[in-house]
Write a structure and sequence with these properties.
The protein is an all-alpha fold. Helix content is 74%, strand content 0%. The protein is globular, with a radius of gyration of 22 Å. About 5% of the residues have low confidence.
Amino acid sequence: MGVVILVLMLAGVGLMLARKLPTAFALVLLGVAIAVAAGAPFTGDDSIVDTVLQKGSVALASTMLAVLIGSWLGKLMEETGIAATLVRKIVEFGGDRPTIVALGVLAVSALVGTVTGSAPAAMMAGIVGIPAMIAVGVPKTTAAGTILMGIAAGVPFELPVWQFFSTALELPIDTVRGFMVKLFPFALLFAVLFVLVETRRKGVEHSWSLTSGVARPERRGRGRARRMGDAPWYALLAPAIPLVLALGFDLAIIPSMLAGVLYALITTTRPAEMNQRMLRTLYAAFEVAAPPIVLFVAIGILLAAVKLPGAIEALNPLVGAVAPAHPVVFVLVFTLLVPLCLYRGPLNVFGLGAGIAGVLIAAGIYPAVAVLGLTASYNQVFGVSDPTSTQTVWAAQYSGVSPQRVMLRTLPYVWCVALGGLCVTAATYL
């Protein structure tokens, strides 16, 4: 039976890679198929309907809410000009020095990445940041990679990601936070190294056109500044408010994020306009958050399926036989397997990787905190270099290069980030 479940997982990967089915639909079908293969009854305890579909679909509800609030804060930062102002101030400070400008945009991208990930974060930092970097001579591929590496440097402090790992792996928030704090130095170090190395590797490349049709990118940024206006300096603290409350004061994640929303609203909006802006940005946030929420529903269903007693009993001997136990072998094997999280591969935590993580924990192969280290390390690679991820596609296309070029340029750096996270995992939790 375990072999049948593994074949079903491989079939699911094939459907996703071949784009025959959207990832969320493929995961739901895979979850139901695993439940059937595991001999689960149709209804009742540990059943297809009541356990896999009903309980599984809402298992990550707290993560979905955190994603929605993060998208809300992101929309507020976009509409009120907070994100654009941060980028413009950095660009003005950097002047015509490509490396300084790129490092500044990297810092803003990291700050935005703590609020929301994926394409919204790339857009907030990149709409002004990418044309500004290209205008001062940063190569196009490096400009796209800077945005992505910056967002990845902020992801260890992205509160919805904390909530996801806490719920999916059944770990306390404090445990998730503890590992993320250890992962952050690696993400930051290699993000900075990317900028320092890549801005000098080919020298200055002046280019005034993008595939998006922007003739003079620096003029577009200044025109946007004139039309939108800068946000007040104290409003620029909005993206840091949730992080300070959650990390510094141990406030729960959702209240911390709501505090950031209220701060951004109060510091940028007149009282008479608050209601309209609050509702307008909230409704817009639903549109942004819909794709990840659908994905989290599907992941919850898959996790419920692989945790069924029949699935655990069938998979335990197979997974236990191939999973590396020694810490050094653990690091070597999973470092070599890093590419399997790309192209929606089997180790992508926002796909089949979530199911594999559930198997590793439910079968007792690794402690949950070690699986956290594994999946969080892989997430650093997926978020930057996967040519199918929305943020990578957007940043590459806006810069006028292919996502594959961005992958090739950034992959060595995020591979090192993953290696660092795996070393911490092996040394601390195995």
